Amino acid sequence: MGNSSAAQLYRCAECGWRATKWSGRCGGCQAWGTVEQAAVPAARARLSARATDRLAPARAVPITKVDARAASVRPTGLDELDRVLGGGLVPGAVVLLAGEPGVGKSTLLLEAGALVSRTGPVLYVTGEESAAQVRLRADRIGAVADNLYIAAETELSAVLAQAEAVQPELLIVDSVQTIVAPGVEGTPGGVTQIREVTAALMAVAKQQSLSTVLVGHVTKDGAIAGPRALEHLVDVVLHFEGDRHAQLRMVRALKNRFGPTDEVGCFELGEAGLAGLADPSGLFISRHGSHVPGTCLTVTLEGRRPLIAEVQTLVAPSASAEIPPRRVTAGLDSARVAMVIAVLQRRADVKLARQDVFAATIGGVRLAEPAVDLAIALALASAAADLSVAGPVVAVGEVGLAGEVRRVPGVARRIAEAQRLGFRRAIVPAGWASEHGGPEDPDARGAAAKALTDVREVTSVREAIAAALGGG
């Protein structure tokens, strides 16, 4: 990589890779035709110098004399968002919230801003809409408050001036790609602009102990748009995801300097905005009057949160022997479904070679962890035999290529969630209690075993099919 102090500089428009000589292919992201000549940004030095001037020097103090109360979390009022943040927003923290267009990022932050404004002023800067448009959304979702200030700005200096005038406890910038730093090269949303804008907002946030939330766009691949350094700069990276055709929305923490990264917040999107779901399992289970072949329940772990979900499959004869059978999935990993189909054919004598297979989940949830393999296998075997699973049963376990059922983490927690929702039967891998210490910890296994009236331990997928379909 070249030196940025050279007279001429060439930069990749996609990833920000720099060099002193032009190249047809970027040396960072390997993209063709993205390297272009760029002048060395003088404004960056001016911004950095201005930020440095405002910093007052302070003597180093022993860590025992540092007051940790200044960094205590402040709840936003949205329990599901606070769960992911680790309790709330930390003063001076910069949070990046990314998600696909239309998933509900602005609605979520507008609701959070209205709740936080009960304890202090909140500044919501919109660069994509007018103030009137934001007011219309606020009226619709009931997020109108006297202490919630709206500013439609796209220039960095104007945003900083608004923050100086309002002195908010929370600053929301929607979105960081629309803010322009005057005197800095590049188009709005470009690598250089995003880096400069984020650096300036972070400097203000740290100096004034101002909690700041930046809204970020995502690329077609689902990755956060802009330079990778953006994720390293901020303190917290949240990803807001969900199928726009379904009600469920989830917030995941990809990075969190102040809390765990294995928590998930669940929301339901309705006409009145987003509502937190403390118990979202009901969205993922269909209501049948009787047991239907091709369905099986499982318990998935979203972070540390167990969720009951239903796997549905349909097996039908292929249209013709000359046409390859179809394999269609929705909400499931197509590669894992194909692997389970192959294991069933080879290890359990389930005839699926000339059958079209359709597999899906309920409620828009996506199940990608290996622990749902056993539920997929049982649902497929049930559909192929046209026999329903005997009674409401949850199945948890990973299926190996040899037909064995492997242990997965958190089985006791999954069983406890199934029992809480009224299920009494479970099919789990043999030896699952060893995750608690096996025989040396009988209480852990005993508490989970008492939760359900019938916990069947299996070692192979053939044994699991026999237990589920009433053959063993």
- The N- and C-terminal alpha carbons lie at a distance of 65 Å
The residue-averaged pLDDT reads 85
Amount of helix = 25-40%
* Total E-strand runs: 21
Poorly predicted runs: 1-7, 40-55, 436-450
Counting DSSP H or I runs of 4 or more residues, the number of helices is: 12
Strand fraction equals 15-25%
What's the gyration radius in Å? 27 Å
- Summing up helix and strand content along with how strands pair, one would put the structural category as alpha/beta
Provide the spatial order of strands within the biggest beta sheet: 6-5-7-8-4-9-10-11-12
Basic shape:
globular
**Largest sheet descriptor:** 9 strands, mixed
Task: Describe it.
The N and C termini lie far apart (65 Å). With 472 residues, the protein is an alpha/beta fold. The protein has a nine-stranded mixed sheet, sandwiched between helices. Strands 13-14-16-15 form a four-stranded mixed sheet. It has twelve helices and 21 strands. It has helices spanning 42-54, 79-85, 105-116, 131-141, 156-166, 191-208, 229-233, 334-347, 373-385, 411-420, 442-451, 461-468, and strands at 9-12, 18-19, 35-38, 94-99, 122-126, 148-152, 170-174, 211-216, 236-241, 248-256, 264-270, 273-276, 295-302, 305-317, 327-330, 355-361, 393-395, 398-399, 405-406, 425-429, 454-458. Mean pLDDT is 85; it is low at 1-7, 40-55 and 436-450. Helix 8 packs across helix 9 (373-385), helix 9 (373-385) crosses helix 12 and helix 10 (411-420) packs parallel to helix 11.
